[in-house]
């Protein structure tokens, strides 16, 4: 049965039928056009942000920009409030990512190979924080802080972020664990390694890049999260909240443009990193947000 | 933890290791406890707390939350103004989902059937980047584009299509003074922001269709259109349904996008946000936030019937 399917697919690959099939030829022009247009639609707006960071116009969103300048970068650099917001955002993202990495890995190890009562409920619980609109998570946490008289602090933000970051790490870790062979573990045990040695020398190196990738995505997600944060931050200002306030009541458009560009760069790098870490092992992972 | 375990003396180490081996259930429990405590107690506890708030009330004179059970908040929900908000948001979520499907399908189809190697990697990255990053910045970008003096306005002027733009903006209900202050603008930005969530599941569904299906269909004399309609589309439906869960649910709860791009008509997320913030009425906000959950629940039940979860 097994060899049969193999032969079949082998034959298919070399069959003249497939070479004549449309897949091997160029795609229909209308389809190529629609696909490229869609991809452009997805990306052009991001590049426009970069253009506006250099415009000399500061009162309106005039296009094309009347002139280009670098002065807003210096101006943004000198802004204390932007630096403080950036610092808070980085701290929150780092700590939330760390918590999510620990909890997500534990959850992945528990769920990847064993079946137990309530397993499906637990895996649904993991996804719930990002499947439900952020406003519900945010309001629920806020209501609970109120109930237990917990004052808003750095930690109240971190709790919210870590909650929706767990599933990101979990998704990456569980996909890798499912793909790695049980034989490896058995071989390690047969050769006399203890459970801990097996974990340290077999499981962890195998899991490492997947964890790192999950962590990077979690970082990017946390760094620009705004919906849950507005409910859990109180008077504190993370970088996205700073931007949100500027969007509602624009005071300093040029500086906002520069900050927007910086946010794009800071979140793009870890996503690129995560992609390159996982592309060989499991190209489609980390996509199940 | 591992290095400590490794440096333990030999008998200790092996007995601990043996214990781990002999008690898989206990190990499972130890692994489960931390994430279970976090999600089960902190998160789920908060959700139930929210549920509890929805049956509390607000003292009209002191503005304090009264802990007496009542269904007043839910009766309040059925007022015409609130029903209006619920209906408008649900309609917007449906339109956005439809818009996403139309734009996402060609991209997903092209990606699944005509790309490989480097080009496919480029497509993946092109979809992953906007999926994971810069939600707020991407909304802001549209403020720049849709503003009266922005790119769209400039394009319309340069191409002498001003009359078209003005015509669209003067439409009743969906028009407005400029694109960034009209429901059309809100719709476009919603579609733009949630589009990646629709592309990936459709792409995965199409990729799973064996190539022999297409060949069989062609061999049996079907035209490209017939193949698409009777083979590709039915098999892609689970992917569409899976993607639509995201686009639908995310649109229902969002309060940022309609607040930045759009006229002053309210969407569910905004009402919840304003009720808990400016009005300080957390109980009513809690009751209102249950509406998206119910709507999503109904939607999920429908999606499940269509086989959406097979593609997850």
UniProtKB/TrEMBL annotation, chain A:
Residue ranges of the TM segments: 30-54, 88-109, 121-140, 152-170, 258-277
Annotated SUPFAM superfamilies: MetI-like
Domain named ABC transmembrane type-1: residues: 86-276
A Pfam family this chain is assigned to: BPD_transp_1
Keywords of the record: Cell membrane, Membrane, Transmembrane, Transmembrane helix, Transport
Record's subcellular location: Cell membrane
Topological category with respect to the lipid bilayer: Multi-pass membrane protein
Major localization listed first in the record, in broad terms: membrane
Gene3D superfamilies according to UniProt: MetI-like
UniProt region (Disordered), positions on chain: 1-25
Bias (Polar residues) ranges: 1-18
Entries under PANTHER family matching the protein: PUTRESCINE TRANSPORT SYSTEM PERMEASE PROTEIN POTI
Similarity comment: family membership: Belongs to the binding-protein-dependent transport system permease family. CysTW subfamily.
Record protein name field: ABC transporter permease
Species for this entry: Shewanella jiangmenensis
Lineage of source species: Bacteria, Pseudomonadati, Pseudomonadota, Gammaproteobacteria, Alteromonadales
From TrEMBL, chain B:
Membrane-spanning parts: 27-52, 85-109, 121-141, 181-202, 235-261, 281-302
Domain of life: Bacteria
Residues covered by the ABC transmembrane type-1 domain: 86-303
InterPro entries, alphabetized: MetI-like (IPR000515), MetI-like_sf (IPR035906)
Record-linked Pfam families: BPD_transp_1 (PF00528)
Entry-linked Gene3D superfamilies: MetI-like (1.10.3720.10)
Keywords, alphabetical: Cell membrane, Membrane, Transmembrane, Transmembrane helix, Transport
SUPFAM superfamilies: MetI-like
Subcellular location as annotated: Cell membrane
Main location: membrane
Bilayer topology: Multi-pass membrane protein
Family, per entry: Belongs to the binding-protein-dependent transport system permease family. CysTW subfamily.
Name of the protein this chain belongs to: ABC transporter permease
